[in-house]
Amino acid sequence: MTEQLPIKFLEHLQLQNVGINVANIGFSSLTMESDKFICVREKVNDTAFVIMIDMTDPNNPIKRPITADSAIMNPASKVIALKAGKTLQIFNIELRSRMKTYNMAEDCIFWKWVSVNTIGIVTETSVYHWTMESDSHPVKMFDRHQSLQGCQIINYRTDESLQWLLVIGIQAQEGRVVGRMQLYSIERKVSQPIEGHAAAFTQFKL
């Protein structure tokens, strides 16, 4: 009987084959918000570029001269969010138009699309949600727990209803990497610190 593997790995693309420098393939310069797009920041001489790879057409990446500290593609559409210092912007690539812009009071140290129209923003003290809809500004969801102080934030997750929120960080401690998480309930307005390096939400029916 053929052994049933729980996970199957299939290579779709070698980034170097589409012109991505291996030095730019890393946590600080490459983002993949979904299985639809890959976004890479690179610098050639004195010019900064953002390269967007559509996984339905990976051999024809889109390259734009854009200066940004961070770039994240929308998980479903050709919309890109850019961060330069404390300035956040959202652009529609196909229409070549800027949809929204906002200047944060604090530095955004981690951000991520948590749905097709909402970005989660983590600062040194708080967590915000910023929606593409209307002209709304980022809305503060909760304060960071003291257990995350000094941690490098590596992920931010939410459940499908955006009622449970989770910040994930890591920290060097006694020669090992310790994982720390903060779980927050919108309904109860309460946080719970949890030890761990990774987590995910799912829907489960009893």
TrEMBL record:
Matches recorded under Gene3D superfamilies: Clathrin heavy-chain terminal domain
GO cellular component terms listed in the entry, alphabetical order: clathrin coat of coated pit; clathrin coat of trans-Golgi network vesicle; clathrin complex; clathrin-coated endocytic vesicle
Family matches, as InterPro entries: Clathrin_H-chain_N (IPR016025), Clathrin_H-chain_propeller_rpt (IPR022365)
GO molecular function, one term: structural molecule activity
Gene Ontology terms describing biological process: intracellular protein transport; receptor-mediated endocytosis
Pfam families for the chain: Clathrin_propel (PF01394)
UniProt signal peptide: none
PANTHER family on file: CLATHRIN HEAVY CHAIN, CLATHRIN HEAVY CHAIN RELATED
Name of the molecule in the record: Uncharacterized protein
